[in-house]
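Retry 2 of 3 after timeout on previous attempt. Resubmitting structure tokens to design endpoint.
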């Protein structure tokens, strides 16, 4: 009997071109394969308050369920598609806000993460937002945009120009992942940031470290004197929440406050 030869490997599928990937991604947005979640940003004395929320994009795969943003954000960044996602998120939030208000409910303040690609490459994004707010009948104060501290430090002039018309319209901005850098403390109030979202390291071991408590208390006080409110991210337990309340941090966010939930009616 002749030996059985191994089957020849099947041809690999052809690699997707950038144009094909872009078309598939936009198609998935239209088909609602991306969904919106939110996580409350609440005063530490009222952790159940959800009047201020961070909006989170999630990608829904047919069989894998919901995947965290880390699984698709780098790929979209590589393909230059984060501005498309940012516009989609803003559009969905404004439509949601319009429906809420039509039902006689007030739209919560929503904080949306912006990529540096959008800031640097989408020259009409500001007009898009302002016109979207007008069309939806949503108050500009209901919208906050988050920008990474590292991006703001590296691209300060571009970001300042980007922020100016939106701030004039009533939209606010948050500087996220702020770890206490003196440079950021100098430029943040001048650029018009209203919120500083504190890096989780600033709240680490608060219960056991009196020096860390003093450092954070001084930072919160300094931010308030500059006209900026603080948000402590990644608050994981009641003990940390109690210390942040005592240190007069303005807002808290994390699994110890509330886990992300689907945005209602989206």
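Retry 2 succeeded. Sequence:
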């Amino acid at each position: 009997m002749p030996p059985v030869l191994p089957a020849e490997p099947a041809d690999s599928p052809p690699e997707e071109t950038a144009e094909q990937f872009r078309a598939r991604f936009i198609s998935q947005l239209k088909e609602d394969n991306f969904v919106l979640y939110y996580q409350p940003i609440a005063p530490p004395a009222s952790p159940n308050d959800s009047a201020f929320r961070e909006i989170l994009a999630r990608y829904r795969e047919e069989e894998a369920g919901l995947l965290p943003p880390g699984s698709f954000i780098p790929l979209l960044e590589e393909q230059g598609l984060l501005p498309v996602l940012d516009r989609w998120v803003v559009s969905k939030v404004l439509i949601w806000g319009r429906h809420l208000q039509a039902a006689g409910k007030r739209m919560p303040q929503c904080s949306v993460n912006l990529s540096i690609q959008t800031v640097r490459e989408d020259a009409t994004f500001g007009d898009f937002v302002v016109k979207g707010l007008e069309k939806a009948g949503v108050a500009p104060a209901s919208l906050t945009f988050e920008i990474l501290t590292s991006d703001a430090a590296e691209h300060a002039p571009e970001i300042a120009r980007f922020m100016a018309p939106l701030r004039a319209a009533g939209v606010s901005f948050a500087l996220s992942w702020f770890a206490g850098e003196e440079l950021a403390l100098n430029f943040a109030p001048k650029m018009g940031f209203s919120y500083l979202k504190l890096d989780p390291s600033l709240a680490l071991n608060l219960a056991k470290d009196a020096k860390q408590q003093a450092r954070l208390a001084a930072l919160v006080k300094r931010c308030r004197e500059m006209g900026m409110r603080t948000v402590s991210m990644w608050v994981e337990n009641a003990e940390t929440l109690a210390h942040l309340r005592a240190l007069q941090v303005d807002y808290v966010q994390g699994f110890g406050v509330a886990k992300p939930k689907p945005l209602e009616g989206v």
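Attempt log closed. The chain is about 40% helix and 20% strand.
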